[in-house]
Design brief:
The protein is α+β, with helices and mostly antiparallel strands. It is built from 21 helices and 17 strands. It folds into two domains: about 10-490, no CATH class; about 525-655, Jelly Rolls, CATH 2.60.120. The protein has helices at about 10-30, 35-60, 65-85, 95-105, 120, 125-140, 145-175, 175-190, 195-200, 205-220, 225-245, 250-265, 270-300, 310-320, 330-335, 340-375, 395-430, 440-460, 470-475, 485-490, 495-515; strands at about 90, 385-390, 525-530, 545, 550-560, 560-570, 575-580, 585-590, 590, 595-605, 605-615, 620, 625, 635-640, 640-645, 645-650, 650-655. The strands form five sheets. Strands 8-7-11-5-14-15 form a six-stranded antiparallel beta sheet, with no helix packed on it. Strands 3-17-6-10-9 form a five-stranded antiparallel beta sheet, with no helix packed on it. GO terms for molecular function: pentosyltransferase activity.
Length: about 650
């Protein structure tokens, strides 16, 4: 009996197809809201039905017309981005803010890492911080404050990524439809206006790095010697920066090595065609090691094993039976109570097997599916690492709930379609398993995607933002002409039967939407005015001493009525608090909770003043966020008679009680 030869790429594609199926189901049904699910399905059905008409229209466009349309879309997107940065500054919190504050300190020559224990516990972000400080030094010379300096970097990198993706898709597919559809998604979805624009963190450089890598690989064979030299240098720098900023980019190196080994035995001619960019990528990872060490040395960073966490803690955290594989603060607190890195490692050596045994084989597989569904879900991406808008304009807040809900739906529709297209193309590869040869570019793309999925599903903790590395990888797979579906090669309008089926499905979904008991949007998570940026007491953030009977105050503008107010304090700090309406001069006394002062009542639109007073005859510490030139809130903090424009309380005015 003759055994048929099977392409290894098709086997890998089948595994990726299974992951895409999990991503499709997750984005349709999570978060659980029947109205949102109905809108996602209606959007997907509408795009499916109209796809032939869209393909027919785009096929008739000239290249000049397509260029103009793409240029207009990109310019319009950039204008909206600048308006968002000007009128909708977000309150950045957690890791990105800690990195930002330290980078700002370094950029002003303050080579001190002792304001927080964060970098001793998690040194993986040291290189990113040092690189950010170098950029801020440059923007300081241009007299830009930290806010505009760091957001200029986000603006440049984000739009570089988007343009690189559009270029890759257009170059590969040789079709107007794919590039225009991708551009429209970036224009109308929250992708270009929320997390990646408002929060600078390691995810965006990783996306840019992958976009550069695959752009070079796609076009390498067509480049002349001069262009190969320039793009090779860019490729090397991208890999070095990408690896020092986000060490899990090592997944790409593993994929390159596996493809190289496979081609070494199966097709050396194909390997010869791409060996130069492969060698550059490998060299980039090698040079990343001394680069990272050099950045740490230049910034005077010194690791302290007393506070450092072993890498295994991420694996242990991901198998917490009471969590879904995400970051868990209780696990962090448990390890923090153990002194010394080796003692923590000894604890984990026993604790991890215990967790795996408690979950059991079925529980472990279930956890993998849970983690994959979180990784590939995008509904919460727009709000990642943001505590809300600092003080959104009145007009925007009037429609904020509706805009946020529709943005979430558009993101889910976009990724459901991306995953579905990838799924179909992977199945096409599988169906041709005995006939097709292994294209190294496709193999590398699939291997890299699977590597990231496996890393965050089988080993590491997971978050939806980690799954965004799929965008350049899946975009390439959906643009490769040899994997194109029949519907793309031969435009056929939907039949009457297909039309009736789609119509009936839409009617059922509309009826379900109308009868669904829960609202599409909720006021929870949509705040009126916030300032949540802080270095966090869990990392031993420095508190501010206030002298006996000293007073602190800060003005806040409410552009929408609020129902709840909270201001954070250091635990056990004995301060009295008052919220004063500057128009009516009405005073509201705040009541004490363990870590904050709070008020629950309806607060109309207007200007308010938060006022705290140290009522004791001794100095007390209070939680205040301080930066050098990053404006945290529209109004300065006052301590007695002194004003501090870059200091702020940590407060929240909420829509919901």
């Amino acid at each position: 009996m003759r055994i048929r030869k099977i392409s290894i790429t098709s086997v890998l594609a089948l595994i990726l197809a299974c992951a895409m199926l999990i991503g499709i189901i997750s984005n349709i049904f999570v978060p659980l809201n029947l109205k949102a699910t109905c809108l996602v399905l209606i959007g997907c059905l509408a795009i499916w039905y109209l796809k032939p008409l869209y393909l027919k229209w785009t096929s008739q466009l000239s290249q000049r017309t397509v260029n103009w349309i793409l240029a207009v879309i990109i310019i319009l997107m950039m204008v909206i981005q600048l308006l968002v940065l000007r009128f909708l500054p977000a309150s950045v919190y957690h890791d990105p803010f800690r990195v930002l504050v330290q980078a700002e300190q370094l950029s002003h020559g303050h080579l001190n890492w002792n304001d927080s224990l964060y970098f001793q516990r998690f040194p993986n972000n040291v290189s990113l911080t040092v690189l950010m400080s170098g950029w801020l030094k440059l923007t300081n010379l241009l007299h830009l404050d930290t806010y505009w300096g760091i957001h200029l970097l986000s603006f440049i990198l984000l739009d570089t990524f988007i343009i690189a993706i559009l270029r890759s898709v257009r170059r590969l597919s040789h079709q107007n439809s794919a590039a225009l559809l991708a551009a429209l998604f970036f224009l109308v979805s929250p992708f270009a206006y929320t997390y990646y624009l408002q929060v600078f963190y390691s995810d965006l450089p990783t996306l840019v790095c992958l976009a550069v890598v695959f752009n070079v690989l796609i076009g390498w064979s067509s480049f002349n010697q001069t262009k190969k030299g320039l793009t090779g240098a860019g490729l090397l720098i991208s890999v070095i920066i990408g690896e020092v900023v986000k060490p899990n980019l090592i997944v790409l190196l593993v994929a390159v090595l596996l493809v190289t080994i496979w081609l070494l035995f199966k097709n050396r001619q194909q390997l010869k065609a791409i060996q130069t960019p492969f060698l550059i990528i490998i060299l980039g990872f090698v040079l990343a090691v001394p680069t990272s060490a050099g950045l740490k040395a230049a910034s005077h960073y010194h690791a302290d094993n007393e506070y450092a966490f072993p890498a295994m803690h991420w694996v242990w955290m991901s198998y917490n039976p009471h969590n879904a594989g995400r970051y868990d603060i209780k696990d962090v607190e448990t390890l923090s109570s153990i002194q010394g890195k080796q003692a923590k490692q000894d604890y984990l050596n026993k604790a991890l097997p215990e967790r795996l045994a408690k979950l059991g084989p079925v529980g472990i597989v279930t956890r993998w599916i849970e983690k994959a569904s979180i990784l590939l879900n995008v509904s919460l991406m727009p709000k990642a690492y943001t505590g809300g808008y600092v003080a959104a304009p009145k007009l925007y807040q009037r429609f904020e709930l509706q805009l946020s809900s529709m943005g979430m739906v558009i993101m889910r529709i976009g990724f459901v379609l991306l995953y579905a297209e990838t799924l179909l193309r992977c199945l096409r590869l599988w169906r041709r398993r005995s006939k097709s040869t292994d294209d190294p570019r496709i193999m590398l793309t699939i291997l890299t995607a699977l590597g990231y999925i496996a890393f965050h599903t089988l080993l590491w903790e997971t978050e939806s933002r980690y799954g965004q590395v799929m965008i350049p990888l899946l975009g390439i797979l959906c643009a490769v002409p040899s994997l194109a579906l029949v519907s793309e090669r031969r435009i056929r309008l939907r039949t009457k039967n297909e039309g009736w089926v789609a119509l009936v499905a839409v009617v059922v979904l509309v009826a379900t939407y109308a009868s669904a008991p829960h609202a599409l949007s909720t006021t929870k998570g949509h705040d009126v005015a916030v300032q949540q940026s802080q270095l966090s007491l869990q990392f031993d953030a420095k508190k501010t001493k206030i002298k006996p009977y000293g007073t602190l105050s800060q003005q806040v503008q409410l552009n929408h009525k609020a129902k709840r107010f909270e201001i954070s304090l250091a635990p056990a700090a004995e301060f009295s608090g008052t919220l004063i309406n500057e128009q009516t001069h009405q005073h509201y006394e705040l009541y004490r909770t363990f870590k904050s002062l709070m008020l629950k009542r309806t607060l109309p639109v207007g200007k308010y003043r938060i006022q705290l007073r140290n009522d004791l005859q001794r100095s007390q510490s209070v939680l205040i966020t301080k930066t050098l030139s990053y404006r945290l809130a529209p109004y300065p903090l006052k301590i007695d008679q002194s004003q501090y424009p870059y200091w702020s309380f940590v407060y929240t005015f909420s829509r919901a009680r």
